[in-house]
Give the backbone structure.
Amino acid sequence: MTDMPSSSLRYARQIRFSPLGESGQTKLGQSYAVVVGMGALGSVIAQHLVRCGVGRVRLIDRDIVEWSNLQRQMLYREDDVRGMLPKAEAAARYLRSVNGSVEIEPVVADVTSGNVSDLLAGADLIMDGTDNYTIRYLLNDYSVSSGIPWIYGGAVGASGVTMTIVPGQTPCYRCLYPEPPAVGTTDTCETAGVLPTIIDMIGSLQATEAIKWLSGNRDALHGTIVQLDVWRHSWFPVAVGRSRRADCPCCGERRFPFLDGSEEPVSSALCGRSSVQITPARPVKLELDQVAEAFQKIGPVTVNPFLLRLELTGGLSFLLFKDGRALVQGTEDPIKAKAVYAELMGY
């Protein structure tokens, strides 16, 4: 059996990159990053951080590996689907085979206002690999309240966006997006699809910013919100240095409603019905015909003046009401139901 190589050998090519060097590599090895969400973006981010030698990486995800993930989530294999492995555990197994010198900690959990502090405390950096607005606003609240920076990223269709948020130095997420969009008004990967190439690009930009931060090259952070579209071949960075708002509800007024749980969707299992109800934190008024049109790409849809029903794979059904409330039928697992709601509604 070959002994573990020295850092100077394993990381030789990036050490030769002068802005990083031996000093930067040493700092990476002493750093602790948390990746929240081990789907498509999280897979790209985690792989780069582990291969680059970040000393400790925690991987958090609530879901299991499914067939539809394999098109774009590069850490997973068909055997992971057959074995019904949680994404965090499957990712950790793969990444440990890539770099045994990194401490990799898988956590199978749903990040909520109740556990976010326990899951993220002590990190040098938080990486956003999530797929819904509720968690992003929660991460922003936690970041600002704790002073731990986070790197936002999102992608759907052929376009994506990313921004690095450093509390006290840059605008926070709510400086640019003060309030979440209404439930059901934005595209998701389920309704609009997604190309794997945009995932690679956004995740790699996020990972590069992480390497800059953790290696001490903080002056090299791009200082923009970057928007990409790989189909139209457009790259649109917008400087945000002057976008901090004194009246920002989060970093300006220091109010953290997502952290205290008042903005969190409520889930409840319905006794004897193999169903879970999801109620959004804010009331909405949906146009069910418009939602039904978007859902037609996913599965059979029926709609009446009161509700919409979408038939999903795996024996699941999704019943959506005008006020944004939904019943996920075919499961009694609130975490599974929340994942379905997030995939379809963006929350």
